[in-house]
Amino acid sequence: MRISEYALEVGIIQKKILLIDDELIFIESITKALKSCSRQWHFAAVDNPADGIMHLKRESYDLVLLDIIMDPVDGWDTLARIRNLPNGVDIPVILFSVKNLQLDEIIRYGNYLSGFIKKPFVDAELCETLTEFFSWYDLLISNAKAAKTQGVPDDICARWVRVVRQIHAYSRLLEFVSPYCIPDSVLSDEECKEKRMKQINQIIDDRIKERDRLKILYPVFSL
Fold this sequence. Notes:
By secondary structure, the protein is of the alpha/beta class. Helices cover 56% and strands 12% of the residues.
């Protein structure tokens, strides 16, 4: 049995989840799915970004599930507003969409995300994705807390969590890349994709180097 399956079975993952989506049908669908996942998951659902921001101002959440295609404020603008909140800098955000991600979107927003889920999906897929994320992320947070008790500064621990989360997220975002690239007046579609992928790989390489540097400076970091 995998760790995530064990955690789900014994009910040890107690989490607060906020869903932001302007489609009531999808809100009903994901509410049903979340209820089937775990009794330990408590969640709120709102049908517009403004209400979602108000929820985040009043309460703390362990995860935000955010739809990209919303009107008049889309998921990208909502993500920026979340990150500008005092308590929204590091809260994990997983996106939903019926469309795959553009390479430019991954380059621009990858640092701020924790994952992506493609619509539509079955309940079991959502449960597995979220359970595995929480299991992995809890280990990361526990590692950072252990480092703090051993004298590692708060800002270094926060940086460790951020960098490892970003590495983890980029690899998952790349699983949902659109086969098309928006070329400019000079590059062809293939050249555009090649250039964007080099940019993303460079970002990942930079984060890996920073992660490894932190592990050398502070051996208590173990992930």
